[in-house]
Design brief:
The structure is a single chain. By secondary structure, the chain is mainly α. The chain folds into two domains: about 1-200, no CATH class; about 215-475, no CATH class. It has 18 helices and no strands. It has helices at about 5-35, 40-60, 60-70, 75-105, 110-135, 140-160, 170-190, 205-215, 215-235, 240-250, 255-275, 280-315, 325-350, 350-375, 380-400, 410-425, 435-450, 450-470. α4 (about 75-105) crosses α8 and α13 (about 325-350) runs parallel beside α15 (about 380-400). The two termini are about 20 Å apart.
Amino acid sequence: MDKNKMLIKNTIIIGIGQFVPKLLSFITLPLITLYLTTAEYGRYDYFISLASIIIPIVTLQIQQASFRYIISSKDTNEVSKYFTNSLIYTIISSTFLLPLTILLLPVQNVMMSTLLFLLYLSQSIHGLLAQVARGLAQNKQYSISIALFSIINFCCIIIFYFFKSITLELLISSLITSYVISLLYLIRYVKLSLYFNPELITFKTISLLLKYSIPLIPSTISLWIVNLSDRLIILNILGADANGIYAVANKIPSIFIMAYSIFNLAWTEIASRVSDEGEESSEYYSSLFHMLYKFLIGSMLFLISVTPILFNLLINAQYSEAYYQIPILYLGSFLSSIVLFYGGIYIAIKKTEQVGMTSTIGALLNLIINLVLIKKIGLYAASISTVCSYLIILIYRTIDLRKYLDIKYNRKELVISTILMATSITVLYYRNTFAILINLIISTIYNIIFNKILIVASYNKLKLLLRQNKGGYYE
């Protein structure tokens, strides 16, 4: 299959799987908050959020290495080798390190400690199996497993609500149950048991995998620090009200980030599959960047054009100050998507140390700018620091990648696209009907000229998928 068609198809498949959790979490939120106190919900959100930092440290991101090496495996024996070693390492490291980690958390009873251990353990194993499924090009099964997890969790919460018994312990138990059922689904339908072979366990293979994955940890931690540092600095220097305004300001730009993250999952797979093709890979990366840049600009222009409408519909008037942070945050979101695109290339060519190093530099820069400017320009410091940190990472990666690949850029279209986005972002500050109309015209004309072929191809691919599935979830 043509690489671009495969990329579109995988993005749609993964997107469907990612959409279900977002929809169901939106539906269940009122039910959960009805029964949990603000303090209980705060603890619930805290324990779930901690997984994004605890699990990568405990597992050393070995699931990412497993994904990358399985993609380039030449036979079943190689797949078995990488899968078996990754699984054994994940189970052993989680079993010994997770209890030590949980001891450091503000948990007051043995039952909750046990539940958190089981939650993080099941999440670690599920994360590995999901990446293995992607490495084996089983994107449908990967996507179904994500959707299945959310559906099971949703059903459990509905049952708890029906019996008027939604507690913190039951919610954690529901997540554990959902992860276990989802990973069992992966074992059954990806046929992972066929790839498990204890005879292939070697320290050499585990070392090889960890050599690839460990440099990715700083990137994960840095992103976590960037998101957390903004909130902590604002909260401690400007106060809770300012933190609330900044959180609201991020809501609409986060739509762009969420959409790109879905594409990025599909992109990292394709990038890895073509990384061994020599000069052809450079040509493919160049053509895809050309297409992606125009699509991202087109998407951003459209989102900017409807932002005043979305803001008035979704956000209370008392948060009106948040509107003026959004244009800057849009720029940061756009830069972060290009940074992630380059990150996919680094992962594909197995230069993960560059991902970790540049992400760490970006996180430190974000922190420094925040601290220096927060008292002088208020919330704008957080928004501007995000843009500056991503811009520095982008410049470095653009230059550094020249050592490994000859990516060619259409400078004329890059300049035109960038100028139009800058113009649209500037116009966004004028909150009136005329400004909305100007941005709608810019967005429409740009997408007709630059993205017509891609939009039509995506539409036709979605229609074909729906027809093949005859109204079902997947074929």
